Amino acid sequence: MEGERAIVGRLLFLVNEDRYFCSHRLHLAIAAKERGMDVYVATRVDRHGEQIEKAGIKLIPIDFRRGSLSLGKNLKLLKTLVGVYRQVRPDIVHHVSLQLVIYGGLAARIAGVSRVVNALTGMGFVFSSSSRKAALLRPWVRLALRYLLTGKGDYIIVQNIDDFAFITQTFGIDSERVALIRGAGVNPVQFSALPFPEPPPVVVSLVGRMVEDKGVREFVEAVRLLKEKGLPIKGILVGDEDPENPVHISRERLLAWHREGIVEWWGPREDIPEVWAQSHIAVLPSYREGLPKALLEAAACARPIVATDVPGCREIVRDGENGFLVHPKDAHDLARALKKLVEDEMLRETMGAHARRMVEQEFSDARVQQETMALYARMLAE
Known about the structure:
The protein has helices at residues 18-34, 49-54, 71-88, 98-111, 124-128, 132-148, 161-171, 216-228, 251-260, 272-277, 293-300, 313-316, 331-342, 345-362, 365-381, and strands at 10-17, 38-44, 58-61, 92-96, 116-120, 154-158, 178-180, 202-207, 233-238, 263-267, 281-284, 305-308, 323-326. By secondary structure, it is an alpha/beta fold.
């Protein structure tokens, strides 16, 4: 980065899988490398290892499975991470996601890593789900976080103001140690404003993992309700199965919806700009988010958004300006908001233009890079 002050040090990212790293954090790793840092990533490798290594990032494959409660597997993961930290000897380790904040934090304490970034990309299944499993895990996770988030050289990154308040108030952490960096950002050149496809039908799309907590069932039910009213609507689900998630939606269920003609399930897609080129409205009826990149990308493509009034989503959606906020777990409220946009082409265009402008002003990946590099420099200077 020409004109930027160099940052000297060894940086290690700990991320759950290579696909997520490439879509959400690779641009940060490249920015750190361009500023002079020696950058590593430890992650589960599937299909994106070559992309990471071509970017000049040193790749350390690890065997990690999200959501595992196996004591043996988790102890093995902890042992692996301690070994990686002792081998790399990072000046900063950057943990991403709640589960890796816990296991990475323990490994950092054991290995003597003194500077840790704990990036909480939302509060996860444990804090968003009402299931018995989540309720049983919640006090133990709180206890672990109370211990692991208070290291002298540690900083926490949160993505929305609700999580900022939760972390500082629940764990008594000095607000100076908590950085509000709003998501992964989006490249407004790669995701440019797109013309709307010619209706009918009006295409409404949900991009995300196929799990209950993304509001997938509410989306399907809202589309069903509007189809029954005779509206010219087409619902699209874009995203992969997530069998490691306790609230995943089965492949059989997704295919059944597809066969019934309620929605189309397109599966995982790499060409997300093309998804928005074929869509009129972005939808995410999630139960809780950090700051959903899928909505940032939709907004950058000038698509209006309908999302739930929950942490993360309300950071992006300004109700009545670039979209609508609806009640969580309420398919009828979701259908009412969608109906307004399905029936009003001018409203779709106006809200889409507002969404694009908001991304350019507030959510560019360049801004996220600048704020993250400033945090690294501050940590190394202490």
